[in-house]
Amino acid sequence: MVEMANLTGSFVSPSADATVSPQLFAPAGLVASILDGFTIWKGLLTFLVAAVIYDQFKYHYLKGAIVGPMYKIPFMGPFLQSVNPKFTEYKAKWDSGELSCVSVFHKFVVIASTRDMSRKIFNSPTYVKPCVVDAAHKLLGKTNWVFLDGKAHVDYRKGLNGLFTRQALAMYLPRAEEVFNSYNQRFLEKSAATNYTPTPWMSEFRELMCALSCRTFVGYYITDEGVQKIADDYYLITAALELVNFPIILPYTKTWYGKKAADMVLMEFTKCAAKSKARMAAGGEISCIMDAWVKAQLDSAAYREKIEKGIQVDSSEKPSQVLREFSDYEIAQTIFTFLFASQDATSAASTWLFQLMADRPEILDKVREENLNIRNGDRTLPATMDMLDNMPYTRAVVKETLRYRPPVIMVPYLVKKDFPISETVTVSKGSMIIPSVWPACHDEEAYPNADSFDPDRWITGTAEQQTKNWLVFGTGPHYCLGQTYAQLSLMSMIGKASMVMDWEHTPTPESEDIKVFATIFPQDDCLLTFRPRA
Ligand code: HEM
């Protein structure tokens, strides 16, 4: 022992020797009393306490006059709640005030409940930009166009608008018809195979919508197996889209599986882009959205070439948007954003639509009658754009479904500079700010008896005039690019189904309860049975 003590004293720097150092730097008074018993554990504890206090102070500073809990669960906040969000919890937030807040890990989140606050956020591109959810950057790629902001976003979007005009949509309708025919048949077979036992149908609708998107977006450049694989794996992508995720992708977590599935879809779509380019260059007809975009790029290239060569071009030949050429991968990335934006929302809308129709046979009868009349009694006729234009009741049913159960209840935005949203509240840069859709759609002033499903409010009532409350597809520079397409698809789907099938919903105590899975679904996943119509 003596030898040890000597060793320490003679060969090691005195300041590194725990028994020597306090004497060398002998402090006095309060500091002395603190350092006297200083150990690594006390150091860590002090750091932790300081961090907790800082976290609480920061939360209070950001919260200001916004309604929210007095204290934050240290660091993580209500993270566990946000992993499995409940509709009732969102509703409680909306009811708590026009602006309420929550802080999860490093994210400070402000939720706007009223129509006017929500509109203000949607329409303030100087202060906010969409942030989708944290995981979306990882799944879609940071360079994705949906993350562009300001002029860059407006310019990019202009080049896509032409893909969603009425004229363009009419060209994709045959793809939709084929998908509806095939899935109606599958629904009938599945119900027959289970001997008409009521079965949860939500995942069937998700699959149907995925197939519809794939066929409309990339036509037959993808095989049936490819579509099936995307449909099977897509829920992994949805599952990765929690409002707040763990900041890095850890193996075997939801974000990891989601990223793998997203990469697979991107790879499939990249192959489709190469095929579409070859076919369109050979003068093929436009059969899907990808073709339409590739054709617009080819037309732009031809126009540019003529201009470069000094050839006179009549102004009527100038494309409405002169596009640059996009790589196969860029095309795939953009088409993937359409799938990403549409899949959950259209799946939710179709699930509710079938449930609501089954529960209200008198409304389904009217849809059926309108569809039969427009087809002059021939149930097999495919829907055309003209027919869809002349189905006011079916349109009203779709709009009322979207109002009554708006698929996207909130849209996350990121505050990019301190945002003075009201006289008393400035939301700090870096916060997440979320305009809400649900409360505007259930506003009694705009939609009397808002909690009842009443398609007639769109025909004889005043619903059509409540444009300020119609936030189902957002508003402002990022409003939904696919809104007309989505509504026409839903009209076409329910019309066709009403021609060939009868279906029955088995209500459970949870049928009207709302499950949040990126968008909203009936809590019991909608128990249905389908039978052929004689
Ligand atoms: C019922 C179905 C749908 C609903 C309820 C819905 C709703 C929304 C909402 C709320 C937004 C955010 C708008 C904003 O921030 O102001 C949005 C954005 C978007 N939606 Fe949809 N959507 C639907 C279907 C579709 C479909 C079928 C497509 C594509 C074919 C699509 C493409 C997009 C795109 C690309 C954006 C981002 C636009 C941008 O940032 O400029 N959506 N949608």
UniProtKB/TrEMBL annotation:
Cited InterPro entries: Cyt_P450 (IPR001128), Cyt_P450_CS (IPR017972), Cyt_P450_E_grp-IV (IPR002403), Cyt_P450_sf (IPR036396)
Record has Iron as a keyword: yes
Cellular localisation: Membrane
Keywords: Heme, Iron, Metal-binding, Monooxygenase, Oxidoreductase
One GO molecular-function entry: heme binding
SUPFAM superfamilies per record: Cytochrome P450 (SSF48264)
Keyword Heme: yes
Residues noted as binding heme in the record, renumbered to the chain: C480
EC number, UniProt record: 1.14.19.41
Domain of life: Eukaryota
GO biological process per UniProt: mycotoxin biosynthetic process; sterol metabolic process
Cofactor(s) it depends on: heme
Main location: membrane
GO CC annotation: membrane
Enzyme class label: oxidoreductase
Membrane topology: Single-pass membrane protein
Protein family membership: Belongs to the cytochrome P450 family.
Protein name per UniProt: sterol 22-desaturase
Organism: Penicillium desertorum
